[in-house]
Design brief:
By secondary structure, this protein is an alpha/beta fold. The chain has 28 helices and 22 strands.
């Protein structure tokens, strides 16, 4: 029998116990740098606390709770708690903290056991209570580890949870518990399937993969806490193995990526779909076409590619505004979509251009039926902003593999066929032919040559005199563009000006013509001692362009020229155009003092109100009426009406295309103010017109 009870034994032999314990404690990596006194003080404090606890009897319930580590008063900080805090601050791992307590337990039990010969029941009971007290101290010491571990994981917005090797939940942080909206106690011990996750089977399989292979697994899972909300999570399952390589648990982390996925999806839509119509855009369409071509090559079936360009869309966009144009494009996309099958692809290339890929074509006749249906649908009036809008479409058709074998060539072919349909009268379709391809290559060659025409000094401005019919003296001239083509000779403006407008070269060419006209106006005004006006033509494309007029007033001032040294000729279509760009440019010209002339008058639909609103100065009777003056009563009536109306409005009239004495005489009798044409002079070089003005006489008719 021992001479003393365990509490007294601990207090009496505490130095010996702590010294024996210290030898082991110093082998712990985290304790090697700690002060010896500090190590002993913590151990003594714990032992004395346990001894004091053993002095007091305890109930069976207290004994059971203490063995579970649940007997401490949460409102006080015990010696073991202090020990745990210090060890955590010193960088001890949980295993190292546990090792300290194991060594302390072993030291006490060994020394106490050596102090007596037998182990009666009383001694056994005291040993049991001592072990329970150590368990309680362990729980208290590690309580901060557990609390901080949980706080760390719960401070994250991510889901953090631990599964055991049977695939059942062991731990979940607050974010995970909050997502499931049920107490942690109800979740612990359950599998993914029992937790009723929507991806439960797949998640359980991935978890089993970690258990079987000790290799991490990752993926995505969806979770819908409510019927309205749906969250997407990216997860990773990581194996947790002990030093021997055996699997202890699986640690899991899942991050909510719902917003990121939505952003990525929106970015993908922006990159691949047209924001206005929701149709695939050009890049995504080419991807579709490439895949369909490869599939058709394997299947042996044909593909039809349609290229659709709207006729009259620009008029709607310019006259009624961009909102009307956008609505029209949206309705066009819907009508085209209703004409095709679900397996076909409709795309918007940009502007008013659409394409359709028709797959699995067995008979070309079926394509024609579909295209005819599409033409009818697009020619039916649209309701735009409360108004009926009428347009049509020109459609080009090319076939794979008959016409081409690559997506790029197919698109080029369909584009060329569309232009052929447009040139044929619009609101119709055209198949691609080899002749179209050859014509397209020739057209591209001319465009390339035109780009080099200005730097190579191939362009020239010719001037056609305008005479006053009262005395047939030259009072004005019209600037007309010519191209001295190295192979084709002298080309008139109508041979290439359309290409210049399509390619955007019209702006550069127009500036070059204007510069030449201004300097000639200066030279001839000085020669004559009075202002000499030169008319320059401005196309609708130039006027509708967003590029502003470049300092006409400043340049006129620099040359000491009055604004009326220049007259700008526009068509009736430009006059009635409601585009803000057109209005701003015309207003600017009027402010600069430049006069305004309406070319080809009588062939359009301009009104007297438009003429007065823009303060027009001249009307030019279209040459188609002038040519028929001698033979057509209607043409004479129209010409006479134009002259009378113009004079009533205070405008001057110019007749163009005068070629005969009879035409000149009739115009004189009808009180027309001015005339130009080959009867008086063909367009001539600036040097020739300068010499003519200096001589004060006309060149012979038809002389170049």
């Amino acid at each position: 029998m021992p001479t003393m009870a365990l509490p007294e034994f601990i207090r009496t032999n505490i130095e010996v116990i702590v010294s024996k314990w210290e030898a082991f404690a110093k082998t712990i990596p985290g304790a090697r740098h700690m002060d010896t006194v500090e190590l002993k003080d913590h151990a003594k404090g714990i032992l004395l606390t346990i001894a004091a606890d053993l002095d007091h009897p305890q109930t069976s319930l207290e004994q059971a709770e203490k063995s579970k580590g649940n007997a401490a008063d949460a409102s006080t900080q015990t010696q073991a708690t202090v020990h745990g805090n210090d060890r955590l601050s010193a960088g001890f791992s949980i295993n190292e903290a546990l090792s300290e307590f194991r060594a302390l337990r072993a030291s006490v039990m060994q020394l106490w056991g050596d102090s007596f010969l037998t182990t009666p029941r009383a001694v056994s009971d005291e040993g049991t209570r001592f072990n329970e007290a150590i368990d309680q101290a362990l729980s208290e010491s590690l309580e901060r580890y557990s609390r901080l571990f949980d706080a760390l994981l719960s401070s994250s917005p991510d889901l953090n949870f631990i599964m055991d090797t049977r695939g059942r939940l062991v731990y979940a942080n607050k974010t995970t518990v909050g997502l499931f909206n049920k107490p942690l106690e109800e979740m612990v011990g359950k599998s993914f399937i029992e937790l009723d996750l929507p991806n439960a089977v797949d998640l359980q399989q991935k978890l089993q993969g970690v258990i079987d292979t000790r290799v991490s697994q990752s993926g995505e899972m969806s979770f819908s806490p409510t019927a309205e909300d749906k969250a997407i999570f990216e997860f990773i399952f990581e194996p947790v193995c002990n030093e021997s390589g055996y699997l202890d648990a699986i640690a899991a982390t899942a991050r909510n990526v719902t917003q990121r996925k939505a952003t990525e999806e929106e970015a993908m839509r922006s990159a691949n779909y047209d924001f206005l119509t929701g149709l695939p855009n050009r890049s995504y369409f080419l991807n579709y076409l490439d895949k369909d071509v490869k599939r058709a090559a394997r299947s042996g079936l044909s593909i039809a590619l349609l290229f659709i360009d709207l006729d009259g869309f620009k008029n709607v966009n310019d006259r009624q505004g961009h909102d009307a144009g956008d609505q029209l494009l949206q309705q066009v996309a819907q009508r085209i979509g209703r004409c095709v099958r679900g397996t076909d692809t409709v795309a918007r290339l940009g502007g008013d251009e659409f394409t359709v890929i028709i797959t699995d074509v067995n008979k070309v006749l079926h394509v024609e039926i579909l295209v005819q249906e599409m033409l009818v649908a697009l020619a039916t009036p649209f309701s735009i902003l409360g108004k009926d809008v009428q347009i049509s479409a020109s459609i080009g058709i090319t076939l794979f593999p008959q016409d081409a074998s690559t997506p790029e060539d197919l698109l080029r072919n369909a584009d060329q066929a569309m232009y052929a349909a447009k040139n044929a009268g619009k609101s119709c379709f055209s198949y691609f032919t080899v002749a179209m391809r050859d014509a397209a290559w020739a057209r591209l060659k001319v465009i390339d040559e035109l780009r080099r025409a200005i730097p190579c000094n191939e362009l020239a401005v010719y001037y056609q005199p305008i005479v006053a019919l009262s005395d047939e003296k030259i009072v004005k001239a019209e600037a007309l563009l010519r191209w001295h083509h190295p192979n084709s000779g002298l080309l008139l403006a109508h041979d290439f000006i359309g290409l210049a407008e399509e390619t955007g070269l019209i702006g550069e060419i127009g500036e070059w013509v204007l510069n030449d006209a201004m300097h000639c106006a200066k030279e001839w005004s000085t020669l004559l001692g009075r202002p000499f006006q030169i008319s320059v033509n401005k196309s609708s494309a130039e006027l509708m362009s967003k590029v502003p007029m470049k300092d006409w007033d400043t340049r006129l001032t620099a040359l000491a020229l009055p604004g009326n040294s220049l007259s700008v000729e526009i068509t009736e279509g430009a006059l009635t155009n409601e585009s803000s760009n057109v209005r701003e440019k015309l207003d600017y010209l009027r402010t600069a003092g430049v006069q305004l002339s309406i070319d080809d008058f009588g062939t359009g639909c301009s009104s007297m109100l438009s003429l007065k609103k823009l303060n027009v100065d001249f009307l030019k009777i279209d040459m188609s009426f002038v040519h028929e003056l001698a033979t057509s009563r209607d043409c004479r009536s129209i010409a006479e009406m134009i002259i009378v109306m113009a004079h009533k409005l205070g405008l001057k009239v110019i007749a163009e295309g005068v070629e005969t004495v009879e035409q000149r005489d009739w115009l004189k009798e009808a009180k027309c103010d001015y005339a130009q044409g080959y009867f008086f002079s063909a367009p001539v070089s600036s040097q020739a017109l300068g010499a003519l003005l200096k001589a004060g006489k006309m060149l012979p008719a038809m002389l170049t």
